[in-house]
Design a protein that fits this description.
695 residues, alpha/beta, Rossmann fold, 6-stranded mixed beta sheet, elongated, methyltransferase
């Protein structure tokens, strides 16, 4: 039955009780209404599910004024409970059916919060109810609440039949919410020959089975058949194919990365029960429900006969230690479980996304997420404990603490890590010098490897120290030798993205010699940075390397039309932007936003003149922000490439205004040429395999 404009306007919001009351009041009493799928079309497939089960307890949520319940009642199905949150329609239906169908029940009730005990029904019949809750503006919240309630009140082995138009957002929810522990079939409902409906109706049937078991979907929707809306049917078929691939992967034995919702839905069985030796990887948190996302591992202790201090605990692993064998390997993780004395341990791994977060903020963010992972333990009343691995620093020697008017407070320190590259034999032999910016909760801005000077490099004065001085230094010496014998190893690259920057120079390898003769200019805004670099990190200027103190953006603008220095005025120019942002609210951690504005990019293009290379270290926490930066670069530069390592949050972008110096068609040769120029070892060929052309 078609709706009049007035009736249609009354239902601008399908989730509003007031709108439905208004809708039914305008329609008046005594008339049934079907949004889609009339009884003659759904009778046969529906009765095939109910054959011989006249005593079945049937629930019809969001019943409205449909004639569906009365049709089933008249066929002998007496135990039918209808619910709707509109008092107007429930009162009308009672008047219509109380005398002629006295055993049929009617309840004023919100289908997202039903007042029935668990396992009350054998069969749930939804005809458009879920579709009405899934208004695009509302999102999936109400739909998820309703499905949770439907699954709760359905008995084990019971059936949930859902008649739906299977719009993508509705179908996606149904497929994911009934992925674990449910046997699902889907078929298209035939239309009347005279029907001119623009939409195809589908019936999905979910049978409640054993928690954690994953079944492939049985589909009766065929691409060769004729439907009233072929585009709609093809979209459903495609979605089912993708979903079955996901389900097959769950049954393949591969170590799947679950979401918290997957676990809540029973992906690994009953979370309230400890399963000795169970280990599952998962992602905690999602946009809109938590500040951050976290990679985690849930582990149930192998030997549950032990005496545990905690029935469940959370163990946080900082980024600095995430790659250690103890935390990165399954064998090591079981050792952590054993030492933590917890029946269940949830290991949470911090990474670059959490670099600016205070640990107390992280714990507060995690608390509601891990609550659903806590096993049932009636005797436990204490809150779930949070444990944390140290930052991996075994020994720390602060060399200087200073505050800059530009950068803020910072620390220079020498540290010994507890573990370096997992090599227990040499970890205590390596010391690193670090520059810490306190504005970003301890961000390690620079890290350099310290190496011991050879005896021949030491001055005679070092051998003439007084015995008192020697004794004092020997106390600080530890396993690394005297501090006086240590210097920065400039061949060590502190981060993998540094390697990517160097490897990307392969793009202009043949032109690098001429570029080197033109010298190098470092532009630094904060004068204190030059002092720190010179005093602690072995930085020094010479004829080829100069420092310009000032604003980098203004420097490029002022020099946009200048010629390269040196003998070769035709030398290629290379501009490297590696600057962290003090404002993380924009989702752009590096560089600051003004370095990717159109004005700076245009100045950079002019500065590079005929065909230099702009290199940007990009750290974008938001995919939308990253796409915005890429789009701006594409608008200015004809050539754009990207290098991103899987284990690193940094992405290095290479932009050039022309192909004049680019060797993109001979990258293997160019990589070999670059490698020959370098004075230290970098796996150029391996990194360049990850180079992607963006434009």
């Amino acid at each position: 039955m078609a709706t009049t404009p007035v009736l249609h306007d009354a239902l601008l919001d399908f989730t509003s009780r007031e709108n439905w009351d208004k809708f039914f009041a305008l329609r008046g009493d005594g008339d049934s209404f079907e949004w889609y799928a009339e009884w003659p079309q759904i009778k046969a497939p529906l009765l095939s599910l109910l054959l011989g089960e006249e005593g079945t307890e049937i629930l019809v949520p969001g019943c409205g004024s449909s004639s569906l319940s009365e049709q089933l009642y008249d066929l002998g199905f007496r135990r039918i409970t209808n619910v709707d949150f509109s008092r107007i329609i429930v009162a009308d239906m009672l008047r219509r059916h109380a005398r002629v169908r006295p055993q049929m029940r009617w309840r004023v009730m919100d289908m997202t919060n039903m007042q029935f005990p668990d396992g009350s029904f054998d069969f749930i019949l939804d005809k458009g109810g879920l579709d009405a809750l899934m208004e695009p503006e509302v999102g999936t919240k109400l739909g998820m609440k309703y499905l949770d309630e439907a699954k709760r009140v359905l008995k084990s082995g019971g059936k949930f039949a859902c008649f739906t138009l299977a719009e993508s957002h509705v179908l996606d929810l149904l497929l994911s919410e009934f992925r674990f522990g449910w046997d699902m079939t889907i078929q298209a409902i035939a239309s009347e020959p005279s029907s001119k409906s623009a939409f195809q109706t589908f019936m999905l049937v979910m049978v409640k089975g054993k928690m954690g078991v994953v079944h492939t979907i049985k589909s009766l929707v065929d691409q060769s058949a004729e439907y009233c809306n072929m585009q709609q049917a093809n979209a459903v078929i495609h979605a089912l194919q993708n979903e079955n691939k996901i389900r097959e992967s769950h049954n393949s034995g591969v170590d799947i990365l679950f979401s918290l919702r997957d676990l809540q839905l029973g992906a690994i069985g009953d979370l309230k029960v400890i399963v000795p030796g169970r280990r599952r990887q998962l992602i905690l948190g999602e946009q809109g429900s938590s500040l951050y996302c976290y990679k985690a591992v849930l582990m149930d202790a192998k030997n549950q006969n032990e005496t545990f201090v905690y029935h469940c605990g959370v163990f946080i692993v900082p980024k600095a230690r995430a790659q250690e064998w103890l935390f990165a390997s399954e064998e090591g993780q079981w050792l952590v479980v054993e030492s933590a004395k917890a029946a269940r341990l949830i290991m949470v791994f911090l990474d670059s996304r959490h670099a600016s977060a205070d640990i107390d903020v992280v714990k507060k963010d995690l608390s509601p997420l891990v609550m659903d992972l806590e096993p049932e333990y009636p005797e436990e009343t204490d809150p779930m404990p949070f444990m944390m691995a140290s930052d991996g620093v075994k020994q720390r020697d602060i060399l200087q603490e200073v505050t800059s008017e530009i950068t803020g407070p910072m620390v220079v320190e020498d540290v010994l890590y507890e573990n370096v590259d997992g090599d227990q034999s040499c970890m205590s032999e390596k010391m690193f010098r670090r520059l810490i910016f306190k504005r970003s909760s301890g961000l390690v801005q620079s890290e350099a490897l310290l190496i011991r000077e050879s005896p021949s490099d030491e001055t005679d004065s070092k051998t003439k120290n007084s015995s008192a001085s020697s004794k004092k230094k020997s106390q600080k010496k530890g396993l690394t030798g005297s501090k006086d014998s240590l210097r920065v190893d400039h061949s060590y690259l502190g981060s993998s993205y540094h390697s990517s920057i160097i490897c990307g120079l392969s793009l202009v390898a043949s032109a690098l010699s001429a570029a080197a003769s033109s010298g190098e200019r470092v532009v630094e805004l904060d004068p204190m940075m030059e002092e720190v670099a010179t005093k602690y990190f072995g930085f020094s200027m010479d004829e080829q390397l100069k420092v310009h103190l000032g604003d980098g953006i203004k420097f490029i603008e002022e020099n946009a039309h200048s010629e390269p220095n040196g003998k070769d005025s035709d030398a290629v120019r290379i501009l490297i932007v590696d600057v962290d942002s003090s404002d993380l609210s924009s989702g752009l951690s590096c560089p600051p936003a003004n370095f990717v504005e159109d004005a700076f990019l245009m100045s950079a293009k002019k500065f590079l003149s005929a065909g230099g290379l702009l290199i940007i270290n990009l750290v974008a926490r938001s995919s939308a922000v990253r796409e915005m930066v890429i789009s701006r670069l594409k608008a200015v530069f004809e050539n754009l490439y990207s290098l991103q390592l899987e284990e690193d949050v940094n992405e290095v972008l290479f932009a050039s205004p022309s192909k004049r110096y680019l060797e993109i068609d001979h990258l293997d040769e160019a990589a070999t040429k670059l490698k020959a120029m370098l004075k230290f070892l970098v796996d150029v060929e391996s990194d360049m395999k990850n180079l992607q052309r963006l434009q």
